[in-house]
Amino acid sequence: MDNFDPLMLARMQFAANITFHILFPTITIGMGWVLLFFKTRFIATGLDHWMEAYQFWVKVFALTFALGVVSGITMSFQFGTNWPGFMNTVGNVAGPLLAYEVLTAFFLEATMLGIMLFGRGRVSERVHTTATLLVAGGTTLSAFWILALNSWMHTPTGFVMIDGQAHVTSWLEVIFNPSFPYRFSHMMLASGLTVAFLLAGLSAYRWLRGDSGLAVRASLRTGLYIAAAVIPLQIVVGDLHGLNTLEHQPAKVAAMEGIWDTQQGAPAVLFAIPDKATQSNKFEIAIPKLASLYLTHDINGEVKGIKAFGDKSPPVAPVFFAFRIMVATGLLMLAVSWLSVWQMRRSNRDVGVPKTWLLRVLVAMTFSGWVALVAGWYVTEIGRQPWLVYGVLTAAQAASEVPASNILFTLVTYVTLYAGLLFAYISVLFHLARKGAPANMHVEVTHA
Amino acid sequence: MLNATTALVMPDLSTPAGWLPIVFVLVMALAMLAYVIMDGYDLGVGVLLRRADNEAQKDSMIASIGPFWDANETWLVLGVGILLVAFPAAHGLILGSLYLPVALMLVALTLRGVAFEFRVKARAEHKPMWDKLFYTGSLLAGWSQGFMLGHLVTGFETHWASQLFSALIGLCLVAAYCLLGSGWLIMKSEGVLQLKAVRWAQASLWLTGAGVAAISLATPWVSERIFDKWFSFPNVVMLIPIPAVTLALFVVMARSLKRLPVRLAQGNEYGVAVPFACTVGIFLLAFYGLAYSLFPWLVVDELSIWQAASSPEALMVIFYGTVVVLPVIVGYTVFAYRVFWGKSTALKY
Question: Domain extents for chain A?
Fold first, then answer.
């Protein structure tokens, strides 16, 4: 087992967990608000298909929520088992933020979920709608706290170090640290996009299988309109987030751009294979001076290269490629959502759906939100390496002394489990879409 | 791995550094207690699932815990969360020593939580598989928690005797969860299932009793200090009510379980809450006894709550939040239990 670096294993294990975990809250955050939208449309119009849409998607929500809860429990243990040095050094910052997440958000969502799922008929319609609102609000609040902590790890402010421990001087500066507004908006919009393409993809699938009911149409339209509206916003916010990163974490931007040497009039590298050994790019395709233009708004502006940061720079290739995957997925989302909305509006108002081939594209893009999301998180998290808290604590300093063999064993177990569950999740979503029967006909549990 | 016995240094309790750790160890203990009782009954129902005769019974059993299990598990996140944020040194030490059982528990809780959803949403032919995973997950989660409890009271010894002891405590905790689960089902179900639940409770009773006795006897034996705490005069007189009341609760429960089938056959629901209430009472007393033995240590004779605590300023920030939010949580939890009060009905949405 000596061949395995415990630090690398601990990082892989944590990454596997958090990657698996993030998939599900990303859906529930946005989906909570979509459910509230369906519910309020039903109340406002009295049209049954809004309730039908609600009843289909609430199943998806419940399943997704369960996966989020169980993978979240794992996270709460791994903070301590994998990174004891994290709490020992910055526990005074991270502790209260995590505690507030559990206290204000977790219980609220979990308790109200019971009423939202099973309470109709036991509570008034108004209380049920309120429960739905509280679930949606709870998921968003939980994102607020955890992103405040994550952003602080990237751009720590509002604290002093005394005897190797962070002590908070201003909670406002800790929570609203420089990257927080950008990261929070970026993540909320990412959640919206993920849900939009999930709505559109599964509804397109149902449509293609001949389920052309009003509920399917309403879900498809809701998904496409959200996607078309959110994606341009996301591109703008993403760009602003990038400029914020340039200001606070220039090494990450250098890796994203694949720029090794500090230079004026830096090129925008479209494609390359970054080579760690030679500290240069192979097969580079680049547009001269463009990177300087969009990063510094000056065609000859200076952009720092990776070499300028010595051993305090992240691994280039994963950051570089993940960034391109994210951007490419975003552009594809833009093209597909706008084309779909355009076709939908142009076609006969009675039908009001995109053409068959485009529906197939939408089915293929059902989980495109996840692709962009995970790629984006890899950019920002790997881009922070070797730091765990930027400029304060490295991952190596925070690592535990758990034997490598134990970490490896559990890593393999977790990865196998997660792969199986992911497969089951995706197949069950499509299975639910195939069943597609109106939910009120579909009694799940019978009891005398 | 930890051997040196540390002397207890108690800071001035009128300062925040003195009283805040006490408050948080209390909140953590209450969260863990809430977890053990609330997730305990739903884990128990999961273990008992295999004893059901048919699909309809299984569905009823799961319907009885459906609206609650998410929130029940959140108490574990709160308990471990407080351990993490209020006693970071202990979180790393305890969970590091329990690395593999913790991993087992996490995998088990994951399987069981998702099986709950998958069993009704996946293809019908996969339902038995998810039911099996639900059962296995519930069983292993309960067992690993008992295993960890065994290690906690034996001071994380790695000796084989200690491992064996912990493994047995694991079995006893599973039995105790089954007792809670069947008590829950006696209240929430009707007809054949209700009668079966009475029999399940009778079967779990003795192993639960053995577990409580084993923990009670082992704890003083592990540390001389704990022994003195219990058996020196006049403590021993003051403490006698704990085992006495526990024993009385067992007797009351055994009698109630004997009488219930006759009453239920006559359609008389009188006393259906007695087994569950008695079990909760036993859990409370056992927990109190354990807390009395361990306090103020997080790791017996090695790490006290004051040694492990975060800085008072961070604890103070969490303290304010807890004081405001915890009552609200308790409030809407009570509300949710009232909404689903009475016999469980079909779960559909």
Answer: 10-257+316-441, 263-303
Domain ranges of chain B: 17-339
For the segment A22-80, what is each residue's pLDDT rounded down to a tens digit?
999 999 999 999 999 999 999 999 899 999 999 999 999 999 999 998 888 888 788 87
Instruction: State residue B5's pLDDT score.
Output: 55
B226-240: pLDDT as tens digits: 788 788 878 788 888
β-strand A280-287 against A268-275: which pairing, if any? Answer: antiparallel
Residues from chain A that touch B347, judged by Cβ atoms under 8 A, are: 117-118, 444-445
B123 CB neighbours in chain A (<8 A) are: 431
Please count the residue pairs, one from chain A and one from chain B, whose beta carbons lie less than 8 angstroms apart.
242
Q: What is the pLDDT of residues A180-198, one digit of tens each?
A: 999 999 999 999 999 999 9
Q: Specify the 3-state DSSP secondary structure of A165.
A: strand
Whether B78 and A410 lie within 8 Å, measured CB to CB: no
CA dist B41 and B181 (Å) reads 4
Note the Cα A58 to chain centre separation in Å.
Answer: 20
CB contact under 8 A, B70 and A103: no
Distance of alpha carbon A220 from alpha carbon B11, whole angstroms: 63
CB contact under 8 A, B100 and A115: no
Cα–Cα distance for residue pair B135/B150, rounded to 1 Å: 23
3-state secondary structure B291-322: HHHHCCEEECCCEEHHHHCCCHHHHHHHHHHH
The verdict on a CB contact (< 8 Å) between A400 and B347 is no
